[in-house]
Amino acid sequence: MSDTRPEPEEGLAAEVRDMTEEERAEHFAQVTEAVAPDREIGVPVGDTLLEVADVSLRFGGLLALDSVSFDLKRGEILGLIGPNGAGKTTCFNVITGVYRPTAGEVRLEGRGLGRLKRHAITRHGIARTFQNIRLFDEMTALENVVVGTDARHRTSVVGALCRLPRHWREEREGVERAMALLEFVGIADRAADRAKNLPYGYQRRLEIARALATEPKLLCLDEPAAGFNPAEKDGLMSLIRKIRDDGYTVLLIEHDMRVVMGVTDRIVVLEFGKKIADGTPAHVREDPAVIAAYLGVPDDGAA
Ligand SMILES: Nc1ncnc2c1ncn2[C@@H]1O[C@H](COP(=O)(O)OP(=O)(O)OP(=O)(O)O)[C@@H](O)[C@H]1O
């Protein structure tokens, strides 16, 4: 990938490009507010948001997760790494309700997610992106994000069909917030383009915007840097930090060690479905069990 990273001026809607520096600062403050309306900006790493408690998951004869436990603090960027087949995506799938654990429990803000369905888990505040981009190809970038804001709407189907005032207000607010999100992730200049026509890097950012549209407490990113060149990876790292600084908590699966080491506060390492390490990037990098798990993997290559 060579031409997909937004330059500083790229990704901005035309009217923002024409603004003075002061107007832009004011505008971006409003964008930040619109992107995280209910969050305290700049929340410090704090109390426990998510607990993965003794979770096991069996696929037939394969124990894909074996009594895995870790937690995630509010405002933290946590990396989940491990060699291929270690159980990272399975762990995401358990957290987001795709699979139910064979044993153990996932708790969000102390509350077991139990038998909640996927959409209910989204409503409780967990959103994700996918290893293989999943967008509505024929919809515009803006429409893709508006769909995400729908998860928060309170109008009933009857209310929508009867075009009640709340329905219109929510529609309008949804579009405004979606536009702010496109700007936040740096792709507002292509808001009206169909998703399938966007450059690859824009599609990845669009997935993130759509996930943020559900106003998650926890954003789970599954290999967001896959297929990116080094400059694009730098751009992505800045975006992940910006997302955290806006009050979100981030769980990141990523194969690229430079990205993982550069952006996370803490890292959990899985191998063959078991947790083998949990600590700061500096600690994990020196851990003999982690080094052994990764032996033979090139520095900049797959984790
Ligand atoms: N639906 C499934 N049915 C059976 N086995 C599965 C299923 N999903 C995953 N597995 C197996 O579970 C193990 C963990 O897979 P998982 O995809 O979670 O690993 P991963 O760490 O995300 O790997 P990668 O880095 O390659 O994406 C693997 O052995 C995989 O083959």
TrEMBL record:
One of its GO terms (biological process) is D-alanine transmembrane transport. SMART domains: AAA (SM00382). GO terms for cellular component: plasma membrane. Keywords: ATP-binding, Nucleotide-binding, Transport. Pfam families: ABC_tran, BCA_ABC_TP_C. InterPro entries: AAA+_ATPase, ABC_AA/LPS_Transport, ABC_transporter-like_ATP-bd, BCA_ABC_TP_C, P-loop_NTPase. Residues 50-297 form the ABC transporter domain. One of its GO terms (molecular function) is L-phenylalanine transmembrane transporter activity. It comes from the Bacteria. This is Branched-chain amino acid transport system ATP-binding protein. It comes from Actinopolymorpha pittospori.
